[in-house]
Amino acid sequence: MRRILLPVLLLPLLLAACAGNATHGVNAEPEEVPRVGIVESVTAIDLPNEGGSAGAVIGGTAGAVGGSNAGGGRGTYATTILGGVLGSMAGDALQNSGSHPGVEIWVKLDDGKSTVVRQSLDKNDIFQVGDRVRIVRSKGEPRAEHLPADSTRP
Q1: 36, part of any domain
Q2: Which domain holds residue 97?
Q3: Number of domains in the chain
Q4: Residue 23 confidence (pLDDT)
Q5: Does residue 81 fall inside a structural domain?
Q6: Confidence of residue 61 (pLDDT cuts 50, 70, 90)
Q7: Count of alpha carbons within 13 Å of 134, Cβ hemisphere only?
Q8: How does pLDDT run across 7-44, given as a tens digit for each residue?
């Protein structure tokens, strides 16, 4: 039983570790100074779902457990690994399917350039043409945030 249980428990953890993004160490991005500008247009859009590794872990675990019950003898190891890999791929695909509401915001920056930000729709943070915003990075992606009307700093 221990021979079957160890791969079943370790495989999903290994797959989850491989699926994650490492954003620390030498290749980490330096913090960026926020850019400031005025909203030129706002458009409602659908954004694709991008989940973490939970679907892969759950699918990998279920697949490994199912695979460990198939086959016999040394074939059990192969079916456990195959079940874990296939379950992980299926769980990740299910988690990342579909879309959710978002917003596309075109911003005329104070330096004269324009930029576009696509972000999830937040009903508590509605953008309108003429709003003063700053563009910051959140988890590596640009995000617009409102500036107070009397703000002189980003």
Answers
A1: yes
A2: 2-146
A3: 1
A4: 47
A5: yes
A6: confident
A7: 14
A8: 555 556 656 666 555 444 455 555 567 789 999 999 98
